[in-house]
Design goal:
By secondary structure, this protein is an alpha/beta fold. The chain contains 10 helices and 15 strands. The strands form 4 sheets. Strands 3-2-1-6-7-14-15 form a 7-stranded mixed sheet, sandwiched between helices. Helix 6 links the parallel strand 9 and strand 10. Helix 1 packs parallel to helix 8 and helix 4 crosses helix 5.
């Protein structure tokens, strides 16, 4: 048996731990393992396909990032091909990908990625590729699994920032708005905000009213608590509005989520008169060593993916359904996106302890 491993989409702490566990588990069975560099680029001649063995993965479990590198622009069904006139033509290179995998003697692929990568995996599975998925997202927004590796590390990164900002905010009687990742799901903001005793949490699932946010800050002032901490997911938006977007020159002028931290900070300062600052944590949440929880979960996922290959669970994703690791069909995972449930006990606990969601 010869298997190949691919990492796609944004990086997450714990990717290397998955790779290590999968390689060692496969080698223990007497299998050969290959690594596809930069998503599927390696299978399309845009990068390499490399041999992985016990030596290749020694000492990587504690490292952030991925030794295989990654990309979020590697869709083989819509591969961008620059044209002489400067335009870009999208072509379907999926057949080429499958043929190259056959030429390399690859019997099965383990793909590690989020919703986008899992959608590609389902399409490739439908074309005949024997493929198994491992969920990867710091946003924790992949359905079918209680948690994903990288989420706990991201929450702890935000929590450390909140703890530090508390002291400077209180010293200056300031309001500080922290913008964190979370395009469509507010799990990072919710968990870090509650654990860090934030005063306001803004998430995409609960559109906010800026006046309600300001009232919470005024109420704290009246109670003698003259500083406030606001944690805002990048995808949060005001009632009747839409998420904030910024234009990036590096992406050809394409708009990306971002800017809510600054916008909310300015609105708070204008309405309350309080000195307000904002901070964007950005890719800090993706970097660094994975926590013990994430290393363990990633290792369990890597081992389980090899078991899924051995059991021929093609078109399935490994998932945590506590306390067990199970497999879930891609179709079930992709049926409905995972979002913060408004009746979840974490939301209810936040409300019960006085945290405002601006609603």
């Amino acid at each position: 048996m010869r298997i190949a491993i691919s990492t796609g989409g944004g990086d997450a702490p714990g990717l290397n731990a998955v790779i290590r566990a999968a390689v060692l588990s496969a080698v223990h069975r007497g299998w050969e393992v290959m690594g596809i560099r930069r998503g599927y680029h390696g299978l399309l001649g845009e990068d390499e396909v490399v041999t992985l063995n016990a030596d290749s993965v020694r000492g990587i479990a504690h490292l952030g990032g991925t030794i295989l590198r990654t990309t979020n622009r590697g869709n083989p069904f819509r591969w961008p091909v620059p044209q002489p006139d400067g335009s870009v033509l999208e072509v379907d290179r999926s057949d080429e990908l499958l043929e190259n995998a056959r030429q390399l003697g690859i019997d099965a692929v383990i793909t590690i990625g989020g919703d986008g990568s899992l959608k590609l995996a389902q399409q490739l599975f439908e074309k005949g590729l024997r493929i198994v998925g491992v969920p990867k997202t710091i946003d924790n927004d992949v359905a079918g699994t209680v948690s994903t590796f990288g989420f706990d590390t991201a929450v702890n990164t935000v929590l450390e920032a909140i703890d530090k900002l508390h002291t400077t905010a209180e010293s200056h009687d300031r309001v500080i708005v922290i913008e964190v990742m979370g395009r469509h799901a507010g799990f990072i903001a919710l968990h870090a905000g509650l654990a860090g005793t934030a005063d306001v949490i803004l998430i995409p699932e609960i559109p906010y009213d800026i006046e309600r946010v300001c009232e919470k800050i005024r109420a704290r002032d009246r109670a003698g608590r003259r500083f406030s901490i606001v944690v805002a997911a990048e995808g949060a938006f005001a009632r009747g509005g839409s998420p904030y977007l910024v234009e990036r020159a590096s992406s050809g002028g394409a708009a990306r989520l971002g800017g809510i931290g600054d916008a909310v900070a300015r609105a708070i300062e204008e309405r309350t008169g309080k000195e307000t600052r904002s901070l964007v944590l950005g890719h800090l949440q993706r970097g660094g060593q994975p926590t013990g929880y994430d290393r363990l979960l990633a290792t369990r996922f890597g081992g389980a993916a090899v078991v899924a290959v051995a059991n021929e669970k093609w078109g399935h994703m490994v998932a945590l359904q506590s306390p067990h690791i199970v497999t879930v069909p891609f179709t079930e995972v992709l049926r409905q996106p995972k979002r913060v449930a408004l009746d979840h006990d974490v939301v209810q606990t936040a409300r019960a302890t006085g945290i405002s969601f601006g609603d």
